[in-house]
Fold this protein.
Amino acid sequence: MRGPDYTLDLDRQRRVGFPEVVLAQGKSAEQIVEICRQLSRAHDVLVTRLTPEGWEEVASSPLPGRADYDPRSETLLLSVGKPMARVEGLVSIVTAGTSDAPIAEEARRSLEYLGV
C-alpha cells in the first residue's frame, strides 16, 4: 500500500514470517499514525526510533488499541489483540556496558513483539 511518502508491505508476514515494523525516524506524526492504523487491521504494531518528542505528537492523535511507549528504547507497542505467535527457544541480549542499554531494550521489546 502506498501513502504520500511511504510504501507499506502488507504481505511481508506471509512471505517471511514477520510483519512490517515502523521506523519512525524521518516520518511525521501524521504518517506514523496512519501507518499504525493501516497495519493494525492485520496485527499488533511495533514502532521503533520514536523519540519522546515524536511520541508526544503521535499520542495527541487517536490510535487503535492500547499504546505502550517506552522512552528508554524509543519504541511503541500498539496492541490491538492480534499478537504474533509465540516462538519456542531463548535469545540472549548481550551488551558491552550501560550505554548500550537503550539498544538492548529496543532489541528486547522487538523480540517480545515478534513472539520470542
